[in-house]
Here is the input.
Amino acid sequence: MSKLIIDGVNRIFPGVRGAAPTEALKPTSLEVQDNDFITILGPSGCGKSTLLRIVAGLDRPTAGRVLLDGEPVLAPGPERGMVFQSYTLFPWLTVQQNICFGLREKGVSPSRQREIAAHYVGRVGLTGFEHHYPKMLSGGMQQRTAIARALANDPKILLLDEPFGALDNQTRSLMQELLLGIWEQDRKTVLFVTHDIEEAIFMANRVVVMTARPGRIKCDLAIDLPHPRHYTIKTSPEFSAYKARLTEEIRVESLKVT
Amino acid sequence: MFKPLQPVSGAAKVILGIAFFVLFVGAWSIATFGGHVPPTFLADPATMVREAINLFVEFDFAYDIAITVWRVVGGFVLAAIVALPLGILMGTYKAVEAFLEPFVSFARYLPASAFIPLLILWAGIGETQKLLVIFIGSVFQIILMVAVTVGSVRRDLVEAAYTLGARDGGIIRRVLIPASAPDIAEILRLVLGWAWTYVIVAELIGSSSGIGHMIVDSQALLNTGQIIFGIIVIGCIGLVSDFLFKAANRRLFPWSLA
Here is the structure.
């Protein structure tokens, strides 16, 4: 059975003050297998974030359902870790305390919390910054902490909503390699939303393209590139072929909204 | 030095701050020593200093200061104890807000000083009445301002906490309260300043001790030196309490600065 099943999920936002309701997401179905790294690629405003928020349980679908390991998703929970585009570290907690947030909520003993935190601090390369407050960190470091914070809970699936969207190009590439490296080791199931085509291909084993608003899935492309992937793969002919194909798909959609 | 928003050095800041006090006393000296204002209306600085010494030596003014500080702090602490939980509940739960907000907004505009005659009837002219004036003057202000602060905590932080497994109690304890704590401290500092105006009014009427009482007594004797000294003492205490509050905030919430 699939790990995550999105079954006929749509989302219609009610109109404000007599305005017509907005359909953000057409009925959408998607199945995610265990250990999949799926990127959802689409133009801005296509409802890809709405879909992810519904999987996270932060938004409710107007119709349809989401099942994780056969259990319906009704509310947010720690088995679906989320990394947001905006910096959502708790500013009053240090890096270490941020990573321990979910563990403390679970009632894990403090010594075990510190062990787990130390492990993930190492994984995201922040050793030495455990006792820094988020304000003292760069954007890339904050997002690395956010990834560590989500992973520390050992979620069944990791959801990322354009997590590197606010970062500069160089940092963004490094973050992609970091996240991919973690995935190549852990093979944690990942659902990653982005509007960046290269990012989508580089990290995924499947790219799901969504149409312009109202969003629906337009194509589902398996990415058959070997692991471990090195950043130089971005200049390989295979990569370029995928890129050309997806660029065309996205271009058609972007034209619709501009 | 006079470029918009250009910071000034620490030394320049201190010198400028002191310079205004010097100017102020200078203008006062010219007006009084120069004979431009009759001494009945405004005492000169030298007379004021003499009267100030007289107050401490002959009339035990230190006791008056102590009693006034105790009233302000007492009434203010009572108000904070009642207002903080209510404000946090109002900011957190929209139903509580809908229930209390209209009344609190109405009560906030009731002038505390107008309650003095009523409070004298209810509580006599003892300490209870003085504390109640401060209490009424502060409690509604704190409730409303705290509710607004708690209600405007960044939504994405709350959502992040939910995806990390926090439940409603955890959201209040571990997100809403710590996120608003620095602003709440700032609100308390502000309202404490207002409490000082209420205590003096309370002491002007039906009181036998306190700085306000001394001011009324001095008015009967046309002793403007003592009146001015009383006012200056209040200003100095305000300055000290402000300083203490700011120092405590820097200590307690290092993450919200720099």
In short: Strands of chain A lie at 4-13, 22-32, 37-41, 63-68, 71-72, 80-83, 157-161, 189-194, 206-210, 217-222. The first strand of chain A starts at residue 4 and ends at 13.
